[in-house]
Amino acid sequence: MTTFVALGDSITVGMGDPAPGGGWRGWAALLAGTMARPQMHNLATLGALAADVERSQLPAAIALRPDVASVVVGINDTLRGDFDPERTAAAVGRTVAALRAGGAEVMTMRLPDPGQMFGLPGALARPLARRMRAVNACVDEVARRHGTVHLDAARDPATYERRHWGVDRLHPNERGHRLIACRFHVLLTASGYPVGPAPDPEPSSPPPSRLAEAGWMATKGTAWLIRRSRDLVPALLGLAVHEWLADDQDAPGREPVNLNVLSGPSGNLRLTRGLPLAPLKVRDR
C-alpha cells in the first residue's frame, strides 16, 4: 500500500476538474492512481497560504505517515497585500522538512507567474512577477536542501497554453490537471520511485459549454474580485507607483534604486522572463 498525502491550495484540491460523482478530482488523485495500492488523502484547502498548510494541514499529514507527499502552495501568498516572502519560505521549508523527516518522498512545484496569467498591464504585472520569482527562488532552495521531486511548471511552455485552463483562467481544467499529473509521473519515474503506467493526458469528460462557463463566472467568479480588491489592489497600485518612480530614476545622471525588495539577489529571479504571455484572468484559490 502507498499512502499519498497532498497538501496545498485549490490547485491540489482539484478545482477545475470535476469528479464524476461530484466534487473535485484533480492532478493528485490522477497521480495517485499510478501508485501501488494507493491510499489517497487530499488535505488541501481552497485559498490556503503557506502558513495555513504548515499550521492546519501538516499535523494531519504527519499523523498519516505518508510514503509520498506533495506541497504545492504559494500563489495565494503573492496575491496578499501583506506578502512576505521570508514568511512564505519559512512555512514551506518547515513543512517539507517535517515530511522528509518522516520518511516521505516529497513533491514540490515552481509556480507560474500570476501577473502573466491575469493579463494585467505591465506596471501591475511586474510586481506580481517579482513576488512569484521570490517564492519560486525560495522553493527552489527548499527542494535542493531536502531533495524533493521538483516540478518546474513556471518554465514549462505547456503551462501557458489556454487549453489547459478553466474558465476562470487560473485553475487548470481537466486537461491541465492531467498535464500536472503526467509531469510529476515522469519526475517520479526518473527519481526511481515505483509507479505504474502514466495517467492518460487526454480528458475523459467533455468540456463545459460556454453557457455553463458564463453562469459559473457570473455566480462565483466575481467573488474573487470582491475579496481581493480589499487588499491586493491597493498593494498593486502602490507597487506600480514604485515602478513608475524607478523608470524616472533610471534617467541619465540619477542613481538607480533597487526596487526588488521582495527577495534577495538570485539567478532564479530571471527564470520566468521571456515566457509567452497568456491572456488569463484569475479566481481565488
Question: How is the topology of this model organized?
Answer:
Blueprint: E1 2-8, H1 10-13, H2 26-32, E2 38-42, H3 50-63, E3 68-72, H4 75-78, H5 85-101, E4 105-110, H6 114-118, H7 122-146, E5 149-152, H8 174-191, H9 210-228, H10 232-249
Parallel strand pairs: 1-2, 1-3, 3-4, 4-5
Strand order of the largest sheet: 2-1-3-4-5
What's the CATH H-level homologous superfamily?
SGNH hydrolase
- Going by helix content, strand content and strand pairing, the class is alpha/beta
CATH class descriptor:
Alpha Beta
Taking Cα atoms only, what radius of gyration do you get, to the nearest Å?
A: 19 Å
Quote the beta fraction.
5-15%
Considering the chains and any ligands shown, give keywords for the structure.
about 280 residues; disordered C terminus; five-stranded parallel β-sheet; 10 helices; alpha/beta
Can you offer a commentary on this structure?
46% of the residues lie in helices and 9% in strands. The protein has one domain (2-258): SGNH hydrolase (Rossmann fold, 3-Layer(aba) Sandwich), CATH 3.40.50.1110. By secondary structure, it is of the alpha/beta class. A 5-stranded parallel sheet has the order 2-1-3-4-5, sandwiched between helices. It has helices at residues 10-13, 26-32, 50-63, 75-78, 85-101, 114-118, 122-146, 174-191, 210-228, 232-249, and strands at 2-8, 38-42, 68-72, 105-110, 149-152. Helix 7 (122-146) packs across helix 10 (232-249). 44% of the residues are buried. It is globular. The chain contains 10 helices and 5 strands. The longest helix has 25 residues, at 122-146.
